[in-house]
C-alpha cells in the first residue's frame, strides 16, 4: 500500500502558516490519488518529540557497542525505567518513518535554521543503527521519497545580503542524503508577510477538478482546511510545485 507520513513543525498553527498551507495542499492532492488508508499525520507543534536525554544517550551508546542492533532487540538492552520510557517515546517515531514510502515535512525557517520541534524529532529517529538494515547494512531510507516544504521571510539566495545565512536547507539536504535518501525534493516559498494572495485550488484533471479530501485525524490532531492562503499569500508557482510533487506519489 502506498503510504505518506506528513509532518508539520511550524509553531504557527493558524491558517496563516505558509508551510502548513502547502503541506496540506500536497496531502490533499496525494489523497485524491491514493486514498486515505496509507496517510499518517503528526503535528510536531501539538505533539512534540521530547528532546533526547541522558537515558536516550546511555541506551544509544550501549546499542552501538553491539554494532547495528535490530530495533526489536533494543528492548533487551534496556537497563532501567528511564531507558524504557525514552525508548517507548522513540520507537514509534522510527517505525512511522521507516514504514513510509513518502515523507512530507513542513519546515519554516526560524532564526536561519530549522524549528526546534523538527530537530527534536530528527534526534529521536536518529537512534544509533535505527536507519540501517541490520542484515544488509544498507540505508533503510534509500527508497523513500522525502519532500521538504520550507518558507522564510526574506531572500537568502546568491547575491542577496543574507546569502549563506540559510542553515536550514543545507542541513536537511545533508541529513537525509547521509541516510540514503535519493529522491529528495525541497520546495521553498518566500513568505512576504502581510501580502494577500489567492486561495490554493485543488488539482485539475480531465473533466473537472479533483475533489479534496480532508486528511484523516492523527494523534496530534489534523490539518485544518481554511482560507489561510488568502491572508498569507501562497503564490501560484509554489502551489503548482506542491501539487506536482503530491501527484507524483
What integer value in Å does the Rg equal? 19 Å
Low-confidence stretches: 193-232
Taken from the alpha-carbon principal axes, the silhouette is globular
Q: Can you give the helix content as a percent range?
A: 25-40%
Q: Examine the coordinates and then state which fold CATH places here, giving the name of the CATH topology.
A: Rossmann fold
CATH hierarchy, class? Alpha Beta
Structural class: alpha/beta
What's the rounded overall pLDDT mean?
Answer: 83
Query: Could you name the CATH homologous superfamily?
Result: Flavodoxin domain
Query: Roughly how many Å apart are the termini?
Result: 12 Å
Largest sheet: 5 strands, parallel
SSE run: EHEHHHEHEHEEEHH
Second-tier CATH architecture: 3-Layer(aba) Sandwich
Protein described:
The protein has one domain (4-247): Flavodoxin domain (Rossmann fold, 3-Layer(aba) Sandwich). It has eight helices and seven strands. β1, α1 and β2 (39-43) form a beta-alpha-beta unit. Residues 193-232 have low confidence and may be disordered. The chain has helices at 18-34, 54-64, 71-74, 81-98, 116-125, 168-178, 229-232, 236-247, and strands spanning 4-8, 39-43, 102-108, 145-152, 183-190, 204-205, 208-209.
